[in-house]
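As described in the Methods, two query proteins were run sequentially through the folding procedure within a single session, without resetting any intermediate state between them. The first query and its resulting structure tokens are shown here.
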Amino acid sequence: MHTLKTIESPDTKRPGRIPPGQRQVADFPVLHYGSIPRVDPKKWTLKLFGLVEDEKSLSLDEFLALPHVLVHSDIHCVTTWSRLDNLWEGVQTLALMNIIRIMPEAKFAIIHASGDFTTNLSLQDFFQEDVLLAIKHDGHVITPEHGYPVRLVVPRLYFWKSAKWVTGIEFTSEDRPGFWESHGYHNRGDPWLEERYS
């Protein structure tokens, strides 16, 4: 069996790993707006579109064929819980640059998910080494309530930026606040700066 490269998220190396206003939990709380979508893996696609040379749509099999990595990270939810030492498996966002050419004028990634949910990230935040499109958590396939079949994981920002049930990534020149950002959450969401609300 091929050993996957493990990436250590920088926050795991901090001497104090719990950001201000957070408390550590051992479980993995389930939080989302609306019901859990029923995703048919045979019909699931990941659309890569917007400011790219050629838009692409990957089936789940095509997505799973991309190189995988492991990311060891902490989770910080805006609702004040933090869960340390998570191990994710999936595809680095950086790997997407091997299959699409992003136009130079693109500055943001708008993440699209089931139920017309979106969240926004600068490309600087989206293309960090520890950001991935995850399929497994702590060695197990991600459950439906945690985003099966694919969820984004952005370890250095509050966990609402780690959108569940991802279906598309749109590259844009202008920032476009997503669902939670349009409902009073901070546009970026750095837990160490307590960027909870706008």
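Immediately afterward, the second query was submitted; its sequence and tokens are:
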Amino acid sequence: MKRKTAKEILAESFREVAEKKPIDMITIKDITENCGYSPATFYRQFSDKYDLIAWDYIQRTTAIMNKVGVNEYKWRDTLYDGADFWQENKEYIKNLLLHTQGHESFVRYLSEANTAHLTRCILKLTGKKMLDADTEIYVRVYCYGTVQTVCDWMLDRIDLDIQHLSELFEKSLPEPLKEYLY
């Protein structure tokens, strides 16, 4: 049996508190009291709540990205599972978008995190140590565009079901990236 780590428990506690309170109003005390930990335990794991948010996002989305190229798991499946993750966590993500040091900071973080995820995925699939300059730009353009679109979708500015959204993201993948992901 795998026991949850202190980081996992704190992240879960944060998400529970975020169901009832705007992110910018959540304190470390709120998080630790919710799970029975001390603030000292929190600070041994994270520098602040934004560090926790970043760690939690990476942990929860890495599992999706790590499946690319394994057991017939296709890029199309990744897009669908990503959209499903966003839909399942919609209220939490909306809270993050609307209540973290301004809308742009969380969007920028998501863009950078997704760019890092996709870069690692391509490097893993190709066995290369780094991307060439052109491929790096294609990854950035794709990730920054899809993240902004997902944010608009999360904030109900775009009305699509997850199947249609993931299909559009698949169709918008730059041609040079298709050779790596298909």
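The radius of gyration is 17 Å. We note this only descriptively and draw no conclusion about the first query from it.
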